[in-house]
Amino acid sequence: MKVCPFCSGQGAIQKAVIKKDDTIIFICDECDTVWLTENFEPDRCVRFEDEMEKRGLKPLWSELKDIEALE
Questions:
Q1: 23 in a domain, yes or no?
Q2: In a structure prediction context, what are the per-residue pLDDT tens digits for the chain, which is 71 residues long?
Q3: Is 46 within a domain?
Q4: CB of 61 within 8 A of CB of 48?
Q5: Could you tell me if residue 59 is inside a domain?
Q6: How many whole angstroms from its chain centre is CA 4?
Q7: 26: containing domain
């Protein structure tokens, strides 16, 4: 399990696909921090709300599909 660097071991990073455009993202299941690559450095992340609004979508997990935990 990949652990979010912001959640003190509480959040797991999940791989998911945005339904609208099939973009793969990596999202913390605790704080909703998003990475667009598998480089999970703190300075490489964006807010889930910002990324989804940029795509014209609501920041809801129901907008995602194929959610799976990273090993």
A1: yes
A2: 899 999 888 999 999 999 999 999 999 999 999 999 999 998 999 999 999 999 999 999 999 999 999 88
A3: yes
A4: no
A5: yes
A6: 10
A7: 13-69
